[in-house]
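Worked problem 6 (solution included).
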Amino acid sequence: MTDHDFAERSEALRDRYRTTLGAVPHAVEDRLRVAQAFGRLPTEEAFTALRHIVLADSPLGGRVQQLVHFGQLLALGRTEPARIHARGALHAGAGIADLVGVAETALITSGTPAYALGIEIVVELLEDKGGTAEHGQCGDASSPGVRTRSRPLPPA
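Solution. The predicted structure is:
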């Protein structure tokens, strides 16, 4: 495979991540470097195609699928992937209140560590956007049936 072919094919993979998550995670760039070094781009292409089917073509829809993914990663204690999928959920139209709801569900299913991780990620997202704990102050989409009141986060 020529360098031009690799560049073109790997950029197509990056575009899939941009579509799903709004950005290309660092881990994807790492995998692409390994794929290039060892001639394993077809493995990454197959993985990305399966991932696209499961996430983008899910009967759950992109928003719910990203929220499920976020919750599963909280339960597993996978901090960085959970951050990526929290952002992916926002990119897919979820709201901050949805992420809080997932974190609260993780409390029941997986305990305090999962809940604490979820809330830590929510706070980071709020801080990144300069928002408050009011739903809608992070540039997030509205969540059907969710009502919240405006309240700034307490000082750290």
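Discussion: Residues 133-151 have pLDDT under 50 and may be disordered.
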